[in-house]
Amino acid sequence: MKNTVIHKSNTRGYANHGWLEARHTFSFAGYYDPNRVQFGVLRVLNDDIVAGGMGFGTHPHDNMEIITIPLEGDLAHKDSMNNAETIKFGDVQVMSAGTGIQHSEFNPNHDRRTNLLQIWVFPKYRNVEPRYQQITLNVPDREGKFQQILSPNADDEGVWIHQDAWFHMGNFKAGEQANYTFKKEGNGLYVFVIKGGLTVDGQALELRDGMGIWTDDNSLATVDFQMTEDTELLLMEVPMFQ
Questions:
Q1: Mean pLDDT in runs of 10 for the chain (242 residues)?
Q2: Three-state secondary structure call for residue 127
Q3: What is the pLDDT, as a whole number, of residue 242?
Q4: Which family is annotated (predicted)?
Q5: Is-contact 116 91, C-beta < 8 A?
Q6: Which fold does the domain 2-239 belong to in CATH?
Q7: Distance of CA 4 to the CA centre of its chain
Q8: What's the pTM value of the predicted model, to 2 decimals?
Q9: Nearest partner of 105 among 45, 44, 54, judged by Cα
């Protein structure tokens, strides 16, 4: 039997720091809801808008898999592993913080904002050697289907992390249908609506809504999607237990 939880867009945590407008699906910083701390090993799903020329100063992380997906604009990144890169729309970046890293992120464009998703996943192993990976995806490959953007396997499509997780993105037209089958027993699926609207197993979701799905018996469930508008989706399949 499938279990579900729905997080409507307007129930997310919200903070406006002037240069940063942040929305938190799960408890983060000054937003805390004991019922919304994580979904399985998915700990953070932040939807951030960074003003032109502004950003996050150097700060530390450890023992977390950190995934950044720009939705609009660019993000300049520097870290203690001597990486200095600009992440653009169509790119996916991952950092395995492991034993510890420091990094900074800022919007290099003074004339336009940057909108990004930053996602934190608890790793399968603690204190791994820190690593950095960034790739550019072929965005048209997700038209009418789900494109894999992350997996546990370095040889698979997309970036890889130290966790039995698979992420996909898809762009669909109104009226199109799709489905997704879990890749590993014991995993759940978190659906995030980047644009548009749809039904997921008959449940209606709108812009920036999220929905978690898991099963009582850890079976490889299949989830059905019916688009009611032109829709862009991010799917995050993650273990439900560390």
A1: 96 97 97 97 98 96 98 97 96 98 97 98 97 97 98 97 98 98 96 98 97 90 97 98 76
A2: coil
A3: 67
A4: Belongs to the pirin family.
A5: no
A6: Jelly Rolls (2.60.120)
A7: 18
A8: 0.97
A9: 54
**Bridge partners, 235 (sequence order):** 168, 191
Query: So what's the pLDDT on residue 218?
Result: 80
Q: For 7, phi and psi rounded to 5 degrees?
A: -115, 100
Binding residue positions for Fe cation:
59, 61, 103, 105
Q: What integer pLDDT is reported at residue 217 of this predicted model?
A: 86
Residue-level pLDDT at 98: 97
Q: Measuring CA to CA, how many Å separate 172 from each of 48, 143, 152?
A: 24, 6, 26
- Name the token pair of 45: 């799903």
The burial class, CB within 10 Å (0-12 / 13-18 / 19+), for 199 is middle
CB 164 within 8 A of CB 153: no
Domains in the chain: boundaries: 2-239
Query: Which candidate, 23, 3, 15, 5, places its Cα nearest to that of 207?
Result: 23
Q: What residues form the annotated binding site?
A: 59, 61, 103, 105
Amino acid letter for position 218 = N
Strands across the sheet containing 210-215: 2-7, 210-215, 187-195, 231-239, 166-172, 146-151, 159-160
